[in-house]
Amino acid sequence: MNELSRVVWSEGMHLGPHHFQAQNRYFENLIRFTWGALRFAPWGLAGIQLDTEALKNGVLRVIHAKGVFPDGLVFLTPEPDEAPPERQLQPIFPPLRDSLEVYLAVEPASEQGPNCDLEGDGSRLRYRAKTEQVADELTGQDVKPVRFAAKNLHLAVESEIGGRQAMPIARIRRDAAGRYTQDEKYVPPSMSMQASPYLMGLLQRLVEILEEKARTMAKPKDLGAGTLSGFSIEGISNAWFLHCVNSALGPLRHLMEAGSAHPEELYMELARLGGAAGSGGAETTGAGMINCTPHNGQAHICPACDSSACNRCP
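RESULT FIELD:
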């Protein structure tokens, strides 16, 4: 339910939990609507870490995760939300496949309820009530028990998603000996580049390559030989490529140092660099980058975006 109408408060009205719930929905939906209107794909991971030691033993366990589901639900584990229960990989891994995508899933919000497991009976609802002792923040005294709605997160594979909100978080590979490893080159939908060490490593290598290109081409060959205009064809090509490199280095270096930028910003810079370099006759054109869709749910990186492509440029 996308409720964007505020509650009408009036003197003498009878107050019930429905009023406060509706007010809370209004503010949540207002934030989601505004954020979605301002940003491309305003959902994804902001950070994720799996237990690699447990993975070696065939156990899928999340150490920490943070991000936003496609419906706008924010999560942060292990605090304040508990990490999802671990899963044994052997029963859920298809016997004829060598890789498996795993998802973080949660039940969708129900307009008519129920939405919260109040009794802790293991019901698979969107939230699970947990009680914490809270003091008056002004005096630090008068401690009272307060119940909070923690997100009821689960690990799932594609066949288990059904109607739940779900987001891919990793790809698990299995070798011929039955050992499980995390695919380090897998890039899940992300809100921050820091959520993918592979993406950050790729960007760092790309910046290093471009810096080296800029140094080696800082003193181009004689541009005054070969044509009536005073510039050789090779000189013009080198000068254009040097312009492309130097124009891209600043923004790419900033994205690398900040780390918190949306992957879309990296995609735009790579597409701009690829298009400009391709216009100068370089072997690597911008077509491969421009056709690549970031954050499309398929969680992949176009090969043309890999830093190795820049090594083939002049």
